[in-house]
Backbone:
């Protein structure tokens, strides 16, 4: 194990311990905020698998977030399905939707793909409004927030927080394994040199659409969790700006890095709040300045900069350094 | 038939709007290889400057020319100051900086000018031109004309001038261009300046139709993306034509496909673009980009 | 620019954060107990202060509404400068929710659990308020005078802690329907509306008002999205439908476009324009006065850009207030009249509460307003509520534009007296 790895592992353990202690040290409102962070982190990880690792830029992941949220909301509202069950279903629905969208997207590259996915983000709210019978139209669907299961002495906020944290850990471990193995190498190879990857026997088409599906599934699960946590869905929540926010999240957090999803989630959850605390007159102007300054100081995102620091630390403490 | 013709005419008018901003997008993409998400807000801000000058008593055309000059310099400065520090960063980092620019300009405009929409004068007469039963808005026609003039200007500029040639070279192959003595950094800055100028023209042509407010360009930018995608991001003429096609198709879908009506017309238009893209991945008139392996 | 009373909060918040965290922890624990006893002391109320919470979009594509939060803050600064209410100063805490329901939930929880506000006031938007509707009622926090025209806010039986404010969109749709039935014998109606809750509420009220005749009379319905750059195509279709009545349910940008475009293509129906967009300065002037002649609309507030009110005392006071307390605010913006009037309504309620500022009493007083006149309400329009009537303003009057100003006509329509 290299020095940098050791540092990394220590950080992960510390972060997990902190995450578990958090809701007991904070108010219900803060726990809710960190639940949102967890939800965003799952969505960002999904987008990062596609954009960061596989090199397919998506400006439309808000659409999958919406599909996930509505799958859960409709199942809860129309059929009273237990909410725990709706979340994997939402993930499956998005897996299929993402895979199907990934097939025509195979033909597109870079900019054109980005704009095609952007179109998806634009269309989904309109479609949601159109099928009013199911979706409640523009009024949306009001849900009830779940209580903690009997026997657990947790507040609903703490329960939602731990549920999200649990899903997050499972999904993060899954993706870490996926990306570290053969599949991961194929996914990255397609990004770096598609023709060479194909020559090496990687089924590019299949891998690309599958990556799209998996990525959509992650984001869909996040959407489902958000429907449960916010207890309300409405089409205009899932506007184009949500998709752009998600993209901001992965770039600020760090492309092609699993921990980047967490940093990105913290950024998109808290920085707008700071911006408005500084100025109510033009909060977006402050947010924009934050964004630009962040990109100047960390052009490869927070995770990218952190990696540099860790490598340096490892080298200083005599570790082998080496690429992480 | 009358309704068909009128919808086509009105679609062309709206499409002209999309095309004019699409032209600015294509312009900057050709010159710098970046899609500028702040293009719409830059155009909006330029239009506010024109509005301020006209309100201060400047004649329309004087304000028009002054705005173009300011927009050009503004675009240049933005490239030098805001974009240059991340020039060599991954492309998505530049995209995020552009998004930062977008929200800053939008927020500032609202703060300075308030969100109340303002009328913006048109240089063209108010009385519409009526042929048979079909009505042509004089400003709509004029705006399409102006867009075409800009298009010709760009074509000539990139095709026949040294500066234009140098800019194309700088965008397509920075290192070789540098070896030829082209100052690549400045070429990129000029590209931003020119795109800002083209955007300012678009803003001043659009504002009399949609009225001037800080969110004026939001929807238009989306359609301009669609237009440029359809026409091909490497083809200025294609972008304008793409705009006109999107405008007309959207109107006809909204009018004739009953079960869709106006509620899903955007969705249908977008789906059609997707279909086109699947068949022609670089747009109708775009060049396929050859990758070196 | 400084938002009054907001920036000062920032500093104070840092200083008392520790205390607030402790308080919030207690609140969080309280959440776990289903029947938390009503304390004698209301959170957010001290001998010298009343804390009020508010959310509004200061960023995002609905940021045009941001001015409402700013004008309310400015009005409370004025109230505080004049000694406050029964000796208590108002501490108005307003947050940006960007018109996004999840953010509203977060911000409202911050207000309630962290800032410990006594109640919520004039939170803006239909989807945003929908997202917090259940929460505030479960927490038993007064949710007063919400800034939305949807109909669902006046339901004391199911949501006893939420109260509307402005006349709702359905009521207004009803007024136009009555007008058409009475005055247009061979009506063929074309409707243009925004494809969301706001547009649909108007259309529902209008159709209900037309009753059985609705199917026969309405010849075409067209919608638009707020991302549409223009609505030209819809206007062309409406003209082609042969409609002689045009019910225009659009926000200012599209309303002005619709007026201009109809004139351009030579369509001259009876034009019914929703209250949302009847500002002389922000809509009719950009659209052209000549094109706007004979449009019919309904009113409950005085339009500050209408010369009719030039010498009106209420208007002059508003103008003086704007110049002194909110000089950067746009005088053509009806939002600045809306917020001003709502804040005055709230001040009335708080004065009525006297020294009993328990949440129950605030709600009780809000539900017993009798014939309250406010200076920027149209003459004759009064605010009325009761324990079974949670619709404070229910009166509106029709007006026709004469090419320069709105001319009120007919009697005041009162939805409460149906």
Residues:
């Amino acid at each position: 194990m290299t020095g940098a790895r050791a540092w990394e592992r220590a950080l992960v353990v510390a972060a997990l311990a902190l995450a578990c202690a958090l809701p007991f040290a904070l108010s219900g409102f803060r726990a809710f905020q960190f639940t949102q962070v967890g939800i965003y982190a799952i969505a960002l990880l999904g987008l990062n698998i596609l954009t960061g690792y596989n090199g397919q830029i998506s400006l439309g992941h808000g659409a999958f977030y919406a599909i996930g949220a509505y799958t859960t909301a409709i199942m809860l509202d129309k059929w009273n399905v237990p909410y725990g069950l709706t979340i994997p279903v939402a993930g499956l629905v998005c897996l299929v939707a993402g895979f199907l969208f990934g097939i025509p997207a195979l033909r597109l590259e870079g900019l054109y793909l980005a704009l095609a996915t952007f179109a998806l983000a634009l269309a989904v709210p309109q479609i949601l409004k159109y099928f009013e019978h199911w979706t409640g139209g523009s009024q949306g669907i009001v849900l009830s927030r779940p209580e903690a299961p009997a026997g657990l002495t947790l507040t609903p906020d703490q329960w939602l927080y731990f549920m999200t944290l649990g899903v997050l850990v499972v999904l993060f471990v899954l993706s870490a394994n996926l990306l570290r193995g053969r599949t991961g190498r194929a996914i990255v190879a397609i990004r770096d040199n598609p023709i060479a990857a194909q020559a090496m026997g990687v089924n590019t088409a299949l891998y690309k659409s599958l990556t799209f599906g998996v990525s959509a599934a992650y984001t869909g699960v996040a959407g489902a969790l958000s429907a449960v946590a916010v207890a309300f869905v409405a089409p205009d929540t899932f506007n184009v700006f949500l998709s752009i926010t998600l993209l901001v999240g992965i770039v600020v957090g760090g492309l092609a890095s699993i921990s980047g999803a967490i940093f990105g989630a913290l950024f998109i959850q808290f920085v707008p709040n700071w911006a408005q605390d500084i100025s109510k007159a033009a909060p977006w102007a402050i947010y924009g300045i934050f964004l630009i300054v962040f990109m100047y100081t960390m052009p490869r995102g927070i995770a990218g900069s952190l990696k540099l620091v860790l490598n340096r630390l490892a080298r200083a403490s005599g570790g082998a350094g080496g690429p992480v | 038939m009358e309704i068909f013709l009128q919808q086509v005419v009105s679609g062309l008018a709206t499409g002209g709007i999309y095309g004019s901003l699409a032209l600015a997008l294509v312009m900057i993409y050709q010159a710098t290889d970046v899609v500028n998400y702040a293009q719409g807000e830059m155009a909006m801000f330029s239009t506010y400057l024109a509005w301020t000058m006209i309100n201060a008593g400047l004649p329309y055309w004087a304000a028009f020319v002054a705005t173009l000059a300011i927009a050009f310099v503004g675009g240049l400065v933005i490239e030098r100051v805001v974009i240059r520090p991340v020039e060599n960063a991954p492309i998505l980092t530049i995209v995020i900086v552009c998004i930062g620019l977008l929200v800053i300009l939008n927020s500032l405009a609202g703060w300075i000018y308030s969100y109340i929409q303002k009328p913006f004068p048109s240089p063209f007469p108010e009385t519409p031109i009526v042929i048979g039963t079909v009505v042509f808005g004089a400003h709509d026609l004029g705006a399409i004309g102006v867009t075409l003039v800009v298009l010709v200007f760009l074509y000539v500029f990139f095709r026949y001038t040294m500066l234009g040639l140098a800019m194309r070279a700088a965008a397509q192959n920075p290192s070789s261009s540098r070896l030829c003595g082209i100052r690549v950094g400045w070429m990129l800055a000029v590209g931003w300046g020119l795109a800002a100028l083209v955007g300012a023209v678009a803003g001043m042509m659009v504002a009399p139709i949609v009225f001037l407010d800080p969110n004026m360009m939001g929807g238009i930018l989306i359609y301009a993306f669609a237009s440029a995608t359809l026409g091909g991001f490497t083809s200025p003429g294609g972008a304008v034509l793409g705009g006109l096609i999107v405008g007309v198709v959207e109107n006809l879908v909204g009018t004739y496909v009953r079960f869709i009506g106006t509620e899903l017309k955007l969705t249908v238009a977008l789906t059609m673009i997707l279909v086109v893209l699947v068949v022609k991945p670089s747009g109708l008139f775009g060049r396929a980009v050859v990758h070196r392996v | 620019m400084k938002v009054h009373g907001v920036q000062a909060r920032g500093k104070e918040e840092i200083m008392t954060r520790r205390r607030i965290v402790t308080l919030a922890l207690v609140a969080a624990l309280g959440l776990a107990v289903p029947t938390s006893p009503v304390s004698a002391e209301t959170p957010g109320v001290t001998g010298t202060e009343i804390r009020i919470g508010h959310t509004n979009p200061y960023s995002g594509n609905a940021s045009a509404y941001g001015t409402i939060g700013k004008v309310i803050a400015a009005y409370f600064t004025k109230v505080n400068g004049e000694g406050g209410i029964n000796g208590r100063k108002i501490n108005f805490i307003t947050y940006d929710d960007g018109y996004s329901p999840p953010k509203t939930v977060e911000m409202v929880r911050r207000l309630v659990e962290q800032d410990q506000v006594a109640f919520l006031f004039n939170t803006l938007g239909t989807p945003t308020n929908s997202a917090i509707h259940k929460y505030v009622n479960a927490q038993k926090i007064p949710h007063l005078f919400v800034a939305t025209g949807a109909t669902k806010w006046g339901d004391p039986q199911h949501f006893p802690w939420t109260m509307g404010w402005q006349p709702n969109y359905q009521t207004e749709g009803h007024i136009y329907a009555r007008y058409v039935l009475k005055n247009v014998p061979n009506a063929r109606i074309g409707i243009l509306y925004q494809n969301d809750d706001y547009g649909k509420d108007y259309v529902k009220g209008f159709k209900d008002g037309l009753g059985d005749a609705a199917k026969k009379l309405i010849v075409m319905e067209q919608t638009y999205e707020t991302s549409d750059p223009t609505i030209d195509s819809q206007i062309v279709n409406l003209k082609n439908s042969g409609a002689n009545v045009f019910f225009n349910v659009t926000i200012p940008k599209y309303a002005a476009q619709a007026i201009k475009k109809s004139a351009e293509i030579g369509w001259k129906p009876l034009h019914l324009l929703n209250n949302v967009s009847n500002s002389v300065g922000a809509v009719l002037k950009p659209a052209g006065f000549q094109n706007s002649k004979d449009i019919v609309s309904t009113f409950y507030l005085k339009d500050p850009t209408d010369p009719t009110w030039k010498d009106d005392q209420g208007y002059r006071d508003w103008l003086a207030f704007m110049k002194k307390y909110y000089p950067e605010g746009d005088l053509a913006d009806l939002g600045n009249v809306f917020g001003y009037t709502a804040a005055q309504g709230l001040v009335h309620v708080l004065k009525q509460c006297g020294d009993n500022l328990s949440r129950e009493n605030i709600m009780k007083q809000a539900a017993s307003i009798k014939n309250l006149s406010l200076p920027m309400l149209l003459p004759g329009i009064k605010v009325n509520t009761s324990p079974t009537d949670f619709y404070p303003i229910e009166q509106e009057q029709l007006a026709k534009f004469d090419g320069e100003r709105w001319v009120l006509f007919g009697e005041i329509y009162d939805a409460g007296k149906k």
Notes: DSSP finds 14 helices and two strands in chain A.
